[in-house]
Amino acid sequence: xxxxxxxxxxxxDTRMALRFFAERRxxxxxxxxxxxxxxxxxxxxxxxxxxxxxxxxxxxxxxHELGLGAxxxxxxxxxxKLALEPLLLRQPLVRNGNQLTIGVAEASWKEWTGx
Length: 115
What we know:
With about 120 residues, this protein is of the alpha+beta class. Helices cover about 45% and strands about 15% of the residues.
């Protein structure tokens, strides 16, 4: 089992996810969004399950810096914006094969690891 985590080291929730899997000795592939954005295909995978609006961190600093509070964008335009501005994403995005979570989801992660 290899867990893929998208997030930033500055995010407390991302650090919590990394620590959760490290404590259970589960192999993790960490994709630092501060270094490299998630691909449009990866974002679509999460958007198909949760909806595009669930991916947007409306309380985040970057959201307010860009003045997106009054923005009314289509789902496709939001996906483009999220691909260009990965710090707009809610973190962490966690993937285990076809199973996905957004944010801290310890109950789901426990099911995946069996611990």
